[in-house]
Amino acid sequence: MQVTVNGKTEEIPAGISVAEYLDRREVGRDSLVVELNGTVLTRPEWPARILNTGDRLEVVRFVQGG
Amino acid sequence: MQVTVNGKTEEIPAGISVAEYLDRREVGRDSLVVELNGTVLTRPEWPARILNTGDRLEVVRFVQGG
Amino acid sequence: MQVTVNGKTEEIPAGISVAEYLDRREVGRDSLVVELNGTVLTRPEWPARILNTGDRLEVVRFVQGG
Amino acid sequence: MQVTVNGKTEEIPAGISVAEYLDRREVGRDSLVVELNGTVLTRPEWPARILNTGDRLEVVRFVQGG
Amino acid sequence: MDDLLAIGGQKIASRLFLGTGKFSANRFIPLTVEASGAQVVTVALRRVDFDHAEEDVASFVPPTCILMPNTSGARNAGEAVRLARIARAAGCGNWVKIEVIDDQKYLLPDNYETLKATEVLAAEGFVVLPYFSPDLTVARRLEKAGAAAVMPLGSPIGSNRGLRTEELLRILIAEIKVPVIVDAGIGRPSEAAYAMEMGAAAVLVNTAIATAQDPPAMARAFGQAVAAGRTAYLAGLPETSDLARASSPLTGFLYE
Amino acid sequence: MDDLLAIGGQKIASRLFLGTGKFSANRFIPLTVEASGAQVVTVALRRVDFDHAEEDVASFVPPTCILMPNTSGARNAGEAVRLARIARAAGCGNWVKIEVIDDQKYLLPDNYETLKATEVLAAEGFVVLPYFSPDLTVARRLEKAGAAAVMPLGSPIGSNRGLRTEELLRILIAEIKVPVIVDAGIGRPSEAAYAMEMGAAAVLVNTAIATAQDPPAMARAFGQAVAAGRTAYLAGLPETSDLARASSPLTGFLYE
Amino acid sequence: MDDLLAIGGQKIASRLFLGTGKFSANRFIPLTVEASGAQVVTVALRRVDFDHAEEDVASFVPPTCILMPNTSGARNAGEAVRLARIARAAGCGNWVKIEVIDDQKYLLPDNYETLKATEVLAAEGFVVLPYFSPDLTVARRLEKAGAAAVMPLGSPIGSNRGLRTEELLRILIAEIKVPVIVDAGIGRPSEAAYAMEMGAAAVLVNTAIATAQDPPAMARAFGQAVAAGRTAYLAGLPETSDLARASSPLTGFLYE
Amino acid sequence: MDDLLAIGGQKIASRLFLGTGKFSANRFIPLTVEASGAQVVTVALRRVDFDHAEEDVASFVPPTCILMPNTSGARNAGEAVRLARIARAAGCGNWVKIEVIDDQKYLLPDNYETLKATEVLAAEGFVVLPYFSPDLTVARRLEKAGAAAVMPLGSPIGSNRGLRTEELLRILIAEIKVPVIVDAGIGRPSEAAYAMEMGAAAVLVNTAIATAQDPPAMARAFGQAVAAGRTAYLAGLPETSDLARASSPLTGFLYE
Questions:
Q1: Would the CB atoms of G247 and C63 count as touching at under 8 Å?
Q2: Is C7 helix (H, G, I), strand (E, B) or coil?
Q3: CA pair distance H101, C44, nearest whole angstrom
Q4: Which residue of B has its CA nearest to F256?
C-alpha cells in the first residue's frame, strides 16, 4: 500500500495506524505534530486513525528558526 | 431643471447642450475635459449632448501638480 | 591697605592673615583652595601668611563641570 | 672627484659645470630644477657653476601628484 | 550621446523628470523646464473653478515635452483609473503617473490600490508609471502588471529629506527590469546625483525646484547633477578603501 | 556668470581643482583636464631618474591652468619649505599646496608642521594652500599666517570615503574667511556636489577621476556636479520637513 | 518596574525577543536565552528527517518563555496558515510570527500574502505578529486585520545592516497603535538601543546573537542595550543643537 | 569580570565617566553617579562668590569615585597648568582633564595649547587626560608627552550630536596605545554603545544625563549601554552582508 510521507512515496503494510507508523520509524513521538491530508491530527487521534492508500502524511517538529 | 456640476447642484434651463452650458459659464473650452455621469465626453460630443435632469457633470482641466 | 581678591580690589586692615581674611568673609574653609600671587598656598600656610599691600589672592572651590 | 647627486654618490671629472653634468647624463634640461647644497640654482647659473668635491646636487622635475 | 532612456516607445535624453506643483506662477514653468532640460513633465487634474479665471497649466509646458498627468487626489484604484481616463481625453498623450494616497500626513501611497490601477490602465494601453512605497514584491507585481517604469519614493513628498529608503531602492534597482525612477523627497542636487550613481534610471523632482528662490537656477543645478550622476554610473564608481592610498608617487623623495 | 573664486590674485571660474596623480599615462591628462573644466591642477616634485626616460608632467597640463605643485614627500615644515622653493624655481608660478605627512597608513597631515611651513612660505610671497586635518583653531592660525585658502580633508587620501569629517568642515566653512576647499577623500560626483552645497569654495579631486576606467568621462561628471552644487548653494537649499507637503493642489478634487 | 509590554494578553518585561536560528548547537540556546533575558523566543517548523536523530528545539527553550513559531518556508498566505495551524497543534500556545517570502536573495516578505494570512489567523484566535516590509498602509491593514503587533524589517534578514529603513519605521511608530517590533537586520547592540530610543516596542534579534563567538555574552549585551534604549526613551531623549552648550559654568573664571 | 580599564595606576570597572555640569541641583549628583555606576567624575574650578552661600560640589561625589577636575576656563596652556595645580592642592588627587578653549561658539579645543599643558603637567606627575579635537598626529604627540589617556570629541560640547567625528575616532582607536575616551557630544545611550563597539576605552557623558528630566534614569540607561557596547566589542561584532542570510533552515519545507 502506498502513502506519501513528508513528500516521499513509500510502501507500507495495510491496516497500520498513524501511531504504529511512527513507532516503526523509530521517531520519538513527544515533540511531533502530524498532519494527514492537509488536516492536523491531534495526538489522541493517532492510534485510531488507520492509514489508507494514497494518504499524504506530514510529520513535523520544531527546529531552530528566527 | 437640476444638474450637479463639479459637485454642486445647480438649476439650469432644460434643453441646453454641454457646449452651451460651458459657454454660459464663460469658461474657455480649449483646455477642458468633460465627464458626464462617469463617462468621458469627447469634444465632438459636446454640442450634441443635451443635459438631462440629475446629470452629473465634471468639468476639469490640468493644473500644477507633481 | 589694598589687596585684590578674586579679581576685585578691596580695602582690608593691615596685618591680617589669609586664615583671618577667610573668617571675616564668613566662607567655610573646608573646600577652598587659595592661591596667592600665582602660587598655591597649602592649608597649613594660611594662618601664618600675612597679607601685604597689593597681594593678589584667588579663593576658589570645585563647582559643577563636565 | 666625488659628488652626491639625488642621494647617490658618484665619481665625476673635476671642473665640469652643472650644465655640463646634465648634458653628460643625457637628460633634457627643459623641465628640470636644480638645487645645489640646499640652495636653488637658477637656470642662468648652471653653465657658470663648477661642481666641487662633496657637492650635493638635487635634480628634480614635476611628476604626477595630487 | 546614445544613452537614452526608453519608456513607452519614447527615447528620452534627460533623466530629470520635472513636476509643476507649487510654482508661485505658471509663467516660471517654461523657463524652469528649459533650464532643467526635462523632457517629461507632470501635471495634475482638478475641477474647473468657474468663479475665477484660471490658466491651463499644460499650455505652459513646452510642446516638445511628454506630459505626464498624475492621479493625485485618488484614494483608491477606481478613482485613479477614472482620473487617468479623463486625462487621456484631454488629448495630451497616454502617459500617466499613478498616485493613490489615503494618508494626509505623510502622503504615503497605497501600494495595493496602486497595483490594481496599474493593471487596469496598462491593459487599456496607458504608459503607466506608478508612484509607490519601495517594496520588492510590489515592484515585481507592478512590472508584471505592465508598468512602463516604477517610481519608488525616496522620502515623503515635499519633505526634501532625500534618499532615506536607499536600502530598498538599491534592491529594486538590482532586481527590477523596467526603469526605476526615484520620485518624491529629493531635496538637493547631490541627492539626485547619488540616486543616479546608484543606478536609478531617472529622478522626478518638484518641490525642491519649484519652491527655490530662483527656480530656473535650481532646475539647471538638478539637470547638471543628474547628468553628472549618470555619467559617473556609466563610467563605474570606484571602490572605497579603509586606508589611504597615496595620490603622489611613493618614490623619488628628496630625503632618501 | 560672475561667480568667480578669488585666490592669490586670480579669478577662477571652475571650482573643481584636479590632481594629476595615478593617471595610467600622462597623455590622458590634457583630455581629462579639459573635460573637467579645471583651472587649477596639482603636480608633485620628485628626483629625476637618470636611468629611465621621463616626461615632464607639467607639459601635459594646458598652459591656461594654474599649476599648483604640492610638497608631498615632506615630513616636516623644513622639507615642505625646501620643496616649495624648488617648485617655484621651475618658473611655473608661486602657488603651492602644503602637504606634510608623517603617517604612511592614513596619510594624515601634521597640522603643526603644516602651519609652520605656511607661515614661512606666505611670508616669502607664495600663494599657500595648506592641506590639513580639519580643526577650527588650526584653520584660524593658517588664515592668520597668510594662507590663501585652507584645504581640509574629507577622508583619507585616495580612500573614496567622502565627507566623513562633515561636522568639522561645516564649522570651518561657517567660521573661516578665506576659501575652504575640500581636499582628499571625495570619491563620487554626488559627494563633490554635497561639499559645494554646504558652502565649500571648491573641491580638489584626484584619485576618483584618475583611476576611473574613463577619466575624461568621470572628470566631466565631477565638473557638472561641482557646478550643480555651487548653483544650488547660491540659489539657497530648501529646509527639510518631517512631514510630507503635497506637491499637487489640495482642493478641486473630483470626489468632494 | 511597571514598564511591561502587553501582547496577546501577556505582560512581557523584556523587550528583546530572541530567534533560535543558526545556533551551532541547541545546547547553547538555554544559556543564551537566559543571558538575554528574553521571554519571547521564535522557532521554525520543518519536516522530521527519519534518517537522522533530531532534537526538539522547543525542549531547549526555558518553559517560562512564550514560544513563537514562525511560518518560514511559506510562499503564500495558504502555506502560512497551514504552518500556523500545525504549530498550534503542538500544544505550545497560539502565538505565531507570520513570515511569507518568495524572494530567495533578499528574503523580503510578501506584504499582501502576509496580510491575507494575518486576517485568517487572527480570526482563528491566534496571536499574530506579522513580519513585513515597512509600509504605512500595509501596517494599518495589518492592525485592522487583528495583528497583535507588527514587525517591520530594519534591513534584510541576517544582513546585520541595522536600521536602514529608519525613515519608514519612524512613521510606523508614530502612526500605528499596536506594538511596533523591529525584526530582522539588527546587527549590533547600539542599533537595538537606537530602535528602542525611537520608540519601538521591542526588537527581535537572531543572527547577531546566535552567530557570535560567545552567544550568551552577546545576548547579555543586547539585553542591556534594549533596556538602555527603553529607559532613555521613557526618560525623554534630548534635542540636538548645532552649536555647543558649555557643560562647565561660564562665570567665575580666574582670568576675569 | 576582569575587564578593567587601567589609567594612572587605577583599575576602573565602569567605562562610563560622568560630568557634573548642568545639574539643576547638587543633590541629584550622588543619586545619578550611583545609577550610572561611574567611578570617574569631573568637576570644574571657579572663584568663590563671597556674596552667596555656595556648596562644595566635591562633597556630593561619592568618596569612592576618582575626582577629575577639568581646566575649563583656560584659554591657553599656562592657564590650564595653573588651574591644574590649584585643583591638585585641594587634596582630591592628581587627575586632571585638560580643556583649553578659545572659541565660544563651538567650544572647540586648542590642540596645540592642550599639548603644551599636557607636557608640563605630565612631567609634574599629574594623571593627564587631554580633551582635544581628533587628529592623529596630535594624539601621537599627546601620548608621547605622557597623557594617561586621550579624549577626542565626538561633536561639540553639549550638542548631543553624537559621533560625527567617527572617521577620525576610528583611526585614533586603531593607532593610539593609551586609552581613547570619547568626550563631548554623546547624546544618546545608543551612541555611547556604538563608541564602545568601535573599541573606545570609555566615554565621558555629561549634558545628556544632567539635563534629562530624570537624570538617574538616564544615567542608568547610559551605564547599561556602555556595558552592552563593551561586551559586544569583546565578543566580536559580526560582519554585515549585502544580501540576506536566512535565519531559519533552508531544507525540510513542507512544500517540496
A1: no
A2: coil
A3: 34
A4: B7
Percentage of chain G modeled with pLDDT above 90: 83
Q: What is the reported pLDDT for G1?
A: 55
Asked if pLDDT for residue B26 goes beyond 90, the answer is no
Residue of H nearest to F134 (CA): H135
Chosen for mutation from H99, H111, H119, H137 (greatest number of chain F CBs closer than 10 Å) is H137
Q: Which of H157, H134, H135 is nearest to H70 (CA)?
A: H157
Mark yes or no for CB contact G86/A32 under 8 Å: no
- Residues in H whose CB is inside 8 Å of some CB of F read 102-103, 105-106, 108-112, 133, 135-138, 155-156, 161, 164-168, 171, 175
Place of cell 528574553: G38
Which candidate from D6, D42, D64 shows the least CB-CB separation from F89? D42
Cell numbers for F163, please give them: 565627507
CA distances from residue E159 to E36, E141, E164, H22 in whole angstroms, order as listed: 21, 27, 11, 35
What is the SS3 assignment for E228? helix
H220 CB-side CA count, 13 A = 13
- D49 CA to chain E: closest CA distance, Å? 21
For residue H122, give how far its alpha carbon lies from the nearest alpha carbon of chain G (Å): 22
**Is H228 close to G224, i.e. CB distance below 8 A?**
yes
Is the model's pLDDT at H1 over the cut of 60? no
Half-sphere exposure for F165 (CA within 13 Å, toward CB): 30
Q: How far apart are CA H71 and CA H107, in angstroms?
A: 13
Q: Can you give the pLDDT at residue F202? A: 98
Q: Where are the domains of chain E?
A: 10-235
CB-CB under 8 Å, C60 with H86: yes
Interface of A with G in 28-57 (CB under 8 A): 28, 30-33, 35, 38, 40, 42
Residue E1's pLDDT band (boundaries 50, 70, 90)? low
Tell me the per-residue pLDDT of H207-249, one tens digit each, with 9 for 90 and over. 999 999 999 999 999 999 999 999 999 999 988 888 888 888 8
E36-44: average pLDDT: 97
Residues in E closer than 8 angstroms to G111, CB to CB, are 111, 135, 137-138
Residue with cell 497551514: G82
The secondary structure element, H or E, covering residue B5 is strand B2-5
Cβ of E167 under 8 Å from any chain D Cβ? no
Q: Closest approach of chain E CAs to the CA of D66, in angstroms?
A: 5
pLDDT at B57: 94
Say if CB G131 and CB H248 are below 8 A apart.
no
Q: Which of chain B's residues have a Cβ under 8 Å away from the Cβ of F248? A: 63-66
Q: Which three cell numbers stand for residue G87?
A: 504549530
- CATH number for the domain running over H10-235: 3.20.20.70
**pTM metric for this prediction:** 0.92
CA distance H176 to chain G (A): 24
> Is there a contact between F157 and F141 (Cβ–Cβ < 8 Å)?
no
Cell of H72: 575649563
Q: Is F109 exposed, middle or buried (0-12, 13-18, 19+ CB in 10 A)?
A: buried
Read off the pLDDT of residues E133-154 as tens digits, 9 standing for 90 and up.
999 999 999 999 999 999 999 9
Domains of chain C: 2-61 (3.10.20.30)
H or E stretch covering H127: strand H127-132
Give catalytic status of residue E11 as yes or no.
no
CA distances from G80 to A37, A62, G101 (A): 16, 15, 10
Could you tell me the pLDDT band of residue B29, with boundaries at 50, 70 and 90?
Answer: confident
